[in-house]
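[job 0412] stage=fold_complex status=start
inputs:
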Amino acid sequence: MTQTAIAASEVKPRRLPRETAVSALGLLLVAAVVVWVLYEAIKSPQEFASLIVAGAGNGALYALIALGYTMVYGIIELINFSHGDLFMLATVLSGIICVSLFNVDSFGFGAVGAVALALLISMAAAALVNVAAERVAYRRLRRAPKLAPLITAVGLSFMYQWFGQRQFMTGSAPKQWSTMFGDDGFNIGDVRVPYTTVTVIAITIPLLLLMVYIVQRTRAGKAMRAVAQDQDAARLMGIDVDRTITFVFALGGGLAGAAGLLYLQSVGTSNYNLGFRLGLIAFTAAVLGGIGNLQGAVLGGFLLGILSSLNDGMLLGQQWSMTVVFTVLILLMVFKPEGILGSPTTEKV
Amino acid sequence: MSTPTDAAPAQPGVRKAGEDLLTVTDLHVYYGNIAAVKGVSLSVKQGEIVTLIGSNGAGKSTTLRTISGLLRPRTGTVVFDGKSLVGIPGHKVVGHGICQSPEGRRIFPKMTVEENLELGAFLRNDKAGIAADKERVLDLFPRLKERIAQKAGTMSGGEQQMLAVGRALMGSPKLLLLDEPSMGLAPVLVDLIFDTIRTIRDQGTTVLVVEQNALAALRIGDYAYVLESGHLKQEGVARELLKDDSIVKAYLGG
Ligand SMILES: Nc1ncnc2c1ncn2[C@@H]1O[C@H](COP(=O)(O)OP(=O)(O)OP(=O)(O)O)[C@@H](O)[C@H]1O
Ligand SMILES: [Mg+2]
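[job 0412] stage=fold_complex status=done
writing structure:
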């Protein structure tokens, strides 16, 4: 009893100044970045604005994918490594539907209908694949050590990539598809805004809001949060835990499906190993925002999108993009390990 | 010694007559290859408080978890209200009218007290009934009313225990299972919890309570079972067991 009291009083004064120093250093770094961004913004406002626009478009895609990581992690603490590859499959599927099936290569009534249909099919297909993966691979490992489902996810990632590599998918080399808008866009003042960016954001924002609504306001969302905190206790409330987890995989898959189509419509190419890079960025976004936290994933996604866009256009150039992304991640992990919106884990057990 | 006012003036030492609400017969439950419950039979009659006592690892929680459908028995039957519950998944048992306040409280720490209570009524649709039960729970535990908007994980252990019991009551159970409701509570709160259990019974809910605090549990119980390493060691009218030498030696520190 007295011993713990002594230990506590010994530790406290030593830790406090260090923590203050670390957070002061963190604040200093953030301030430096903000100053740099402001400086660039004042120096060349047009370029800055168009980089923000492009970054927001990418950020929206990262956010969509990041939500799939964060929701699955939130409910069963699994880092679903195959999620990026699921997204990749969706890019290819949407390309096949839009181009091979409906010949979408320019804007028009028919094209909008075809893309909308492809969006729905991509979302449904990705949701279905994700649900099947949970049912077949992850469910039986739910009580196994954490490493088992993790390795299973890596295995699924390889399987999806193998499938993406088939000739009717992308084959081994990057494959190109025509898109509805191409590089078309419009100008606000001197700032170029591509139509695809508008489309991406116009579809992403409602989806993000829908997710937050589902999780926070609906009965299913209440069940999700309960299962995330304590599965057995949730069962004692009458919550069907299996069905709730299935639902989360369906939602995450659906978002990856939407991201797949939107990505292909913005970029026009896909590759069997696209999911690795995009998945890694999106996962980083999820961790950055605070894994398990929906708003955090969205924030992290937009933050990374805009940051890497600014870096590509103004700072170090595209070859340093990933370096910057991970530097930000590492710095944040040092100063705020729980992520921007994550809560420190101090729950009573 | 305070005596609960029983409607049926039973003879001392004889169990109240009545229909079984819950009948457990020859229950065997395993964790992997380890037997935790080895042939337990017990029954709970409508309107009773039945007490289950026994030392650590005796299989009390395992029995309750099996009744709630969280565990599947290897053999044995659980019949509730005339229906067999064996094989019914855990989340469906609640719908039959069995709610449990589990060992270690298991409240949802990131949710508010109110959200926890609402989750207790997850399967119910009768808005008026839910509101009435919430009212009732907050009357039973005024402390919860004060903390209604607080995150459950930030409450004291005793407050969390009240929440766990209150949450189980929100399911409007016919049978309430309580696993060590007095664990970690200050003596004043222990008395409060046991008084509340009696009130709950008097309001018409049948109770099966597992307790380490054997003295208090036998005092409020109508009937009692004693479990030892997975076996039923003894059963009888709770008050009679209080006088039993072997029980006093083993569980009441006499
Ligand atoms: N998840 C588990 N896996 C393996 N064995 C378990 C598990 N849970 C309980 N047991 C074992 O089953 C036996 C009965 O456990 P149980 O929790 O039912 O005891 P209890 O009577 O509730 O004890 P206590 O009073 O300490 O809560 C113990 O020997 C315990 O070690
Ligand atoms: Mg126990």
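[job 0412] summary: The pocket of magnesium ion (ligand 2) is lined by residues B 60-61, 103, 179 (CB under 6 Å).
[job 0412] exit 0
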